[in-house]
Each structure stands twice: as structure tokens, then as C-alpha cells.
Amino acid sequence: MLNIIGHKNIFLGISAVLITVAVVAVVLFGFRQGIDFAGGTLWQFRIANNAPATDDVESFFTSNLNTNEAFVTYDPANNSFIARLPAVSEADHQKLLGALKGKYASFDEAGFQSIGPSVGNELRKKAVIAIILVIIGISLYVAFAFRKVFQPVSSWTYGFITLLTLFHDVAIPAGMLALLGHYAQIEIDGNFVVALLVVMGFSVHDTIVVFDRIRENLLLDRGKTAFAELVNLSVNQTMARSINTSLTLILVLLAIYFAGPPSLHYFVLTLLVGVTTGIYSSIFVASPLLVLWQGRKK
Q1: Is the peptide bond before 76 cis (omega within 30 degrees of 0)?
Q2: In principle, which of 119, 217, 268, 285 could form an S-S bond with 281, CB 3.0–4.6 Å?
């Protein structure tokens, strides 16, 4: 049996370093926001014959729109260009469309999406509110579910520690995307919020499994065993289930990451990092924090 609680300072120290790096990255760099949040235009198109260089297409937009905020990338998997531009009205869209068709005979529009700054700002606010409400709601639910457990820690302690582990599992992938946004120009969009919500749901599932086993053992033991030993026993009893359940999801995500469309790469990467940190937190963070809280109270 692994002595996880006995080495809790090591595991908690690793988490503290990762969270510190993530928080510093978010504070220093922030997020490079996509058009979902910042507003703007996302235009996808194909040029089948004699496809030009991305710099040539980018210079076309900068000259016609009189802006330096035009970024064009090429997706070889779909043989298409993706242009990220400032907000473009429908009238300007039609003018640019005509000009592109005149310049490139094989031009074919695949998709056009334009969001105004006010809409993007509203979506950003709603995304932040959604994440906060989910975190609070899950914590309250855990506290209610463990309301009959009073010794040696109260039900609210389970809810509060669940809140800390959720922050742990959200902060690390968020910090990763802040670093990618700064160094690799990766933008976040609505998929980023969806990924974080999925990570929170999966993480709390694993944490509740461990906490539920602790509750069962507390009721069966009736105070005969030291709390730290009982928690360590509970974690070891549920570790195989947590790892096996999460490993199946990780294998699926890896398959999607390497074989799926490039547009989903960073969405899947966020899930991979979040699910992995969720496994770690449910085993090596949540239960040691419970023991530390009980020791402080004692």
C-alpha cells in the first residue's frame, strides 16, 4: 500500500509550483482572445490552383482594410486558408469577396463569421460567470452530499477542498494556454470554456469517489483508526478505479489529438492537461488537504 498521506508535502509542493507558474503566466501574459471574445472576423476559404503564400494573402487584407490586424494561416489538412481580421461589415465582405475572386480564379469561400466587439465582450462575461457558478454549485453540492459526516471534519470541509481542487484543475490548463498564447500565438475561444467545464465535471467525479470511500470507512471504523491512516487506506482502495477510468478517456483524447482535425488540437490538449491534473488532484491533493485541515482543526 502506497503511503500517499505520509508524503503529502511532496505532492502538495508539486501542485503549488504548477499553480504558481500558471497564475503568474495568466497575470503576466493574459489570454490571446479569439473572435468569440474579442470580436472580429474569421474567414475560411480555399484557393485550389496555384495557392499563394500566406504573406501575399495577408498583405491583400492589410492593404484593402487599411489595418495591421490581419493574420492569415494555412491549414494543409483541409487545403484552406483561415484569415483573422477586424470586424468586417457585410458590405465590405462582399467587396472583398469580389476582389478575391477577381485576383484568384479558383477562390472558394468555405465560411465567414463576424462578431462585433460588444457581442464578444458579452460572451466573455457570460463565460466567466458560467465557470464561477459551476465551481460554486459543485462545492455546495458536495457539502450537501456529505452533510451527515461530522467527524472528524465537517461536511463543509469536503466542499471547500473540492473548490480548491477545482481551482487546481482549471488553473493549470489555463496557465498552459496563457503561455501558448504568448509564445505560439494560440487564441482561446468558446471551446476553451467548454473544455474547462468538462475538466471540472470529470475532476469532481474522481474527487467524490475518493471522498465517498473515506465516508464509508469512517462509518465502518467508528474512530478506531487514526484519520490519516484511514484516508490513506481509502485513497489506495480507489486509486486503481480512478486511474483506469481516466486512462480510457486519455487514450481517446490522444487518438483525437493525433488523428483528428487541426482545429480541435488545442481544445483536446486542454482536456488532456485538465484530465491528467484531475487524476493527480483527486489522489494526491484532495485527500492530503483533508488530512491537513483535520490536523489544523485538531
Answers
A1: no
A2: 285
Cell of 266: 488545442
* Residue (of 151, 130, 135) closest to 221 by Cα position: 151
Task: Give the three-class secondary structure for 111.
Answer: strand
Contacts of 144 (CB under 8 A, 6+ apart): 155, 159
pTM here is 0.81
Residue ranges covered by each domain of the chain: 5-35+119-297, 40-115
- What three-state secondary structure class fits 104? coil
For 142, residues 6+ apart whose C-beta sits below 8 A from its C-beta are: 158, 159, 162, 204, 207, 208, 211
CATH, range 5-35+119-297: 1.20.1640.10
- 184 forms bridges with which residues in the sheet? none
Q: What does the pLDDT look like over 133-189, one tens digit per residue?
A: 888 888 788 878 777 765 677 778 888 888 899 899 999 999 999 999 989 888 888
| CATH architecture for the domain at 40-115 | 2-Layer Sandwich (3.30)
